Structures are given as C-alpha cells and as structure tokens.
C-alpha cells in the first residue's frame, strides 16, 4: 500500500513538473516569436509625445528645494500669468510652501477648462509660473473631457506620467512634485490607474520664455 501511494505521489509530481515546463516553453515561445510584432503594436498605439515626456517617473532629492533668493526659487512668479490666476496666491504656493495648496476646485473658477476644450484634443502645454519652462502637456492618451473629469473629481488639475515633461519636473521621495528650479507644483497621489500628479494651477500658469 505504501509503495502504491508513493508511486501515485511520484506520478503527480512528474505531471506537475511537465505542466510547468509546458507553460514555461509556451511563454518563451510567445516572447520569442511575437516580440517584434508586439513592439510594433505598442509603438503604433503610443501618442505623439513632446521631448522630455516618458512613462518613467524621475525622482529628485531635497536639495532642489533648498532656500534661494525668493523662497525655494530664484525669482518671483511672472507678472502676467495665464488662466486668470492671482499673482499673490501663485507666488505663495510656488515659492513659499511645501505642503499647502490652492483651494480645491479653484481651477474651475478660471478659464482652464475652456482652454483645454478649445484645443480640440491637441495637448495644451503648461509652463512654470516662475521660469516659463514647459512642465506638463495634456491631454495625452485620453480625451479632453476625461482629463477635465478626473481633475474635477480630485479638485486639482491631475496629470499622468506620460503628460509630464520630465526634463523639467522631479518627484521627491515623499511625493512632492517640483520643478527642477524649485517651484512647488503639487504632489503625486497614486490611484488604481497609477501615478497621478495633483498639481496647483497657479504653479503652472506661466508663459513660455524664449531660450528655456
């Protein structure tokens, strides 16, 4: 009886091992035979991204936010900010806070949504309120309505990884999202869809500056 039980156990182990090998071989086969085709499909599905955008989050260290001549930045916010945002609020959030934010839903009191919808799906570039460097481009990979809807749900303009211009943006280990020049932008608050950058409109209301 013991010999028969041992024999059954051995058969079960052999079958399990064979099944594992079969699955591994199948997986290897598909990886080897379809890698080129899969790469082509992914490439075709990707939206056209601006230079500096990618799907890889870029981290920075605390030294980016070290004290400078104007809070955490070298200068004040621009005098003629976009989206009808007040300069005093923009300056306080951009250069003199690390954890506070503009009021939830503030962007809905501006022409932010109108600007996004009027672009008819063409990504809108959002610039640093201090330096004028490009920081975000949206919507990418979704509709303007989806971008606005998600922003309304969370209370602040909400960007995804592919919408960040990583040449000019860094994420600190605590989630604080900043410009490479020390402008406080907001925080990374991930949800079930991945990283989500909850950003103060007053910090990305700048005008583009030639040469930056």
Question: Low-confidence parts lasting 5 or more residues at pLDDT below 50?
Answer: 1-51
Termini separation comes to: 82 Å
Count the beta strands.
Answer: 7
Q: How would a textbook summarize the main sheet?
A: 5 strands, antiparallel
How large, in whole angstroms, is the Cα Rg?
Answer: 24 Å
Q: What's the shape?
A: globular
Order of strands in the sheet with the most strands? 3-7-6-5-4
The percent of residues in helical segments reads 25-40%
Residue share in β-strands:
5-15%
What is the N-to-C order of secondary-structure elements (H for helix, E for strand)?
HHHEEHEEEEE
User: How confident overall, as mean pLDDT?
Assistant: 82
Structural category = alpha+beta
**Total helix count?**
4
Provide a quick synopsis of the model.
The protein contains four helices and seven strands. The chain is α+β, with helices and mostly antiparallel strands.
Task: Annotate the secondary structure layout.
Blueprint: H1 2-45, H2 87-95, H3 112-118, E1 124-127, E2 134-138, H4 144-154, E3 158-159, E4 169-171, E5 176-179, E6 184-188, E7 197-199
Antiparallel strand pairs: 1-2, 3-7, 4-5, 5-6, 6-7
């Amino acid at each position: 009886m013991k010999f028969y039980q041992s024999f059954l156990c051995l058969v079960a182990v052999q079958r399990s091992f064979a099944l594992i090998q079969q699955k591994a071989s199948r997986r290897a086969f598909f990886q080897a035979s379809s890698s080129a085709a899969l790469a082509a499909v992914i490439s075709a599905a990707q939206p056209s991204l601006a230079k500096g955008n990618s799907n890889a989050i870029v981290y920075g260290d605390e030294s980016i936010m070290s004290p400078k001549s104007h809070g955490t930045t070298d200068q004040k916010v621009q005098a003629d900010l976009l989206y009808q945002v007040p300069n005093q609020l923009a300056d306080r959030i951009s250069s003199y806070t690390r954890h506070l934010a503009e009021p939830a839903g503030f962007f809905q009191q501006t022409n932010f949504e109108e600007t996004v919808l009027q672009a008819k799906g063409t990504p809108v570039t959002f610039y640093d309120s201090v330096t004028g460097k490009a920081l975000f481009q949206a919507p990418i990979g979704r509709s303007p309505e989806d971008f606005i809807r998600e922003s309304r749900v969370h209370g602040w303009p909400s960007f995804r990884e592919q919408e960040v211009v990583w040449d000019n943006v860094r994420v600190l280990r605590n989630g604080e999202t900043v410009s490479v020049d020390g402008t406080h932008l907001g925080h990374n608050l991930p949800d079930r869809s991945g990283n989500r950058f909850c950003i103060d409109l007053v910090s990305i209301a700048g005008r583009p500056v030639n040469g930056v």
